[in-house]
Amino acid sequence: MKTIEGKVVILGAQGVGKTMVICRYITKMFNRRISPTIGAAFYTCNINLERGKVKLQIWDTAGQERFRSMAPMYYRNANVALLVFDLTKHSSFNEIKSWVMELKRNVDKTMVLVLVGNKSDLVSQRTVDAEEASQYATSIGASYHETSAVCDDGGVESVFVAAAAGLYDLSEENHEHLNSLRINDSIRSILNSDDQPASPSSEDCLADRSIAHGIHEKPHMCC
Ligand SMILES: Nc1nc2c(ncn2[C@@H]2O[C@H](COP(=O)(O)OP(=O)(O)OP(=O)(O)O)[C@@H](O)[C@H]2O)c(=O)[nH]1
Ligand SMILES: [Mg+2]
């Protein structure tokens, strides 16, 4: 069975819930005490698909304007971009369009794009409807998911499964990615399929590293 290792970057405006979504996925909890990301934070998680195992190296970027210039460092060698906006802030949805244009300008390789509308629990404050977002996702070749880090009903997991599945497809489709995707093929299965959980699992949370211009900042509150 094949094991794929790839890089994921999480992009989106300040306060849309990028960190909450990844922390929700890894810890299965909602942590109100998370502060705005400084520079970027790094996480890893392993996801067992039926077809194989995928290890995601995830860079959660900071949405604050003062960190904007650092973003290329994280997206340039990424294989997947999670594009997160806030369903209650239409401006954050518009910002995704700028991110997509920037990625198209600066990244040569094919990237798996996953569009995420977060804060779906705030139903009465919603300003982006599902159809608008899903049409846009189709237009850029992305999958579309709605999530709530507060009361998750499976949306968060679907985001990371889509990222893992997209990476897997990428590894099978074309060879230009072989330098950036680490692939191990083993004759003896790395995971015995009988032992695999039916649903993906996450582990190895390394959220204690927040990096700003190479300076190690105070560890993150979550995980
Ligand atoms: N109601 C609701 N609030 C959320 C949700 N996700 C995040 N929040 C709140 O939104 C705020 C920002 O969340 P963060 O995860 O720090 O946002 P971020 O995108 O990482 O922000 P930066 O790191 O500054 O770019 C916090 O007050 C969270 O409690 C959600 O799904 N629903
Ligand atoms: Mg954050």
TrEMBL record:
| Highest taxon of source | Eukaryota
The transmembrane segments are none
Example GO molecular function term?
GTP binding
Query: Which Pfam family, giving just one, matches this sequence?
Result: Ras
Q: Which InterPro entries match?
A: P-loop_NTPase, Small_GTP-bd, Small_GTPase
Q: Which residues form the signal peptide?
A: none
Keywords assigned: Nucleotide-binding
Q: Which family does it belong to?
A: Belongs to the small GTPase superfamily. Rab family.
> What is the protein name given in its UniProt record?
Ras-related protein Rab-31 isoform X1
UniProt organism field: Neodiprion lecontei
Upper lineage:
Eukaryota, Metazoa, Ecdysozoa, Arthropoda, Hexapoda
Q: Corresponding gene?
A: LOC107225517
